[in-house]
Amino acid sequence: MSFIFILFMLTFVFAFFLFLLFLFLLVRKGVMHYIARRNRNYERFIYPLISRYITVDNHFQHRLLQQSKKWKRAILARMLLDISTNIQSDEEWRRVEQACALIGLTNELRSQLQDKRWWKAAEAIRNIGILKLKELLPLVEDQLLSPQYDVRMTTARTLSMHGRNRVLIEYLIQESHRLQRVSIIRIADILRKVTEEDVDLMLANMNRISPLLQGLFIDLFGRARSMKALPYLETCLSSSSVELRIKALKAMADIGIVSNQDEIMHGLRSDNWVERMQTIRVIQACSMYSAIPQLLDKLADPEWWVRYRAAEALFGFGSVGKDNLRWASKHHHDSYAKDMADQMLTKWHPEEAAL
What pTM was estimated for this model as a whole? Predict the structure, then answer.
C-alpha cells in the first residue's frame, strides 16, 4: 500500500513539474511574441521618421529620439547602423552623429569601449567605425594596446577606414618589436589609401625598423605607386637580402617607372628565379624596349615561370616584341625557348597564329 502511494506521489510530482514547464514555455512564447510584435510596430513607426531626420533634418523629430526605454534605444541604434551604410553627404553624417548623441548611443559606446569582455569592446569599435563618430576615435586608438588580437585588428580596420593611417604606421614602428609576426602583417595589409605624407613617415624610419616591416612598407610604396619612394627602392637593389631586392622590384613594377635601367638589368643574372621573374615584370611595366635581347635570352631560362614572363613581356611590347617571338619560335638555339615563344603566339594568343 505504501509503495503504491509513493509511486502515485512521484507520478503526481512529475506531472505537476511537466505542467509548470509547459506553462513556463507557453508564457515565454507569449511574451516573446508580444516583444516581437511591439518591436515591429515601433520599427514601422519610427523608421520613416528617423530616415527623414537624417535626410532632411526635421527638428520636430528630436523628441522622438530622446527615449528613456532601453528597448527603444536599441532599435534606434540598430536603425542608425543600417541607415549609415547608405549615407553619402557630410551633412547626413553630421545628423547621424547628432542622432547618436540624442539617443545616448555615443555615451553607451564610450562606456562599452572599457568593457572587460573583449568582444563587447570589439563590437563598440566596429560600430564607431560604421557610424563615423569622430569624437570617439581617440579612445579607439587606445585599443591598439589591447592584449586581445581581435580587438587590435578591429581597431586597425576602423582607424584605416577613417584615414588614420599615420596612427597605424607609428604604432607599427614603435611596437613591432613586441607584436607577433601575424599581427604586423595583418595591420600592414589593412592599410589602405596610403598618402604621400604616410610615405614620408615610412621612409624616415626605414633604417630603424625590422626587415619584416621594411618589406611590408615597400609593398605599401608599390600599392600607393609612390614616385617619392623610387630612390629608396633603387638603393634596395644593391642589398645583400634577396627578399628585400624582390620586394623592391615588385614595388617598382607596380609604380611603373625607373630612373636607372642598368641597375634593373642586374636582376636578370640573379641565382634566384623569383628575382629574375620580378626583374622581367619591371622591364615590362616600364616598357624597357632596350631589354628585348635579354628577354630573348630568358626564353631559355631553366625556370618555366621566368620563360613565361619573358615571352609575356615580349608579347606586351607590341609588333616589335611579337616579331621577336616569331623569330624565336623558329630560330632560337634553345628548344625550350622555341616552345615557349610558339605557345605564347598560338596557345595563349591564338589570334596571332594566322599572322
Answer: 0.78
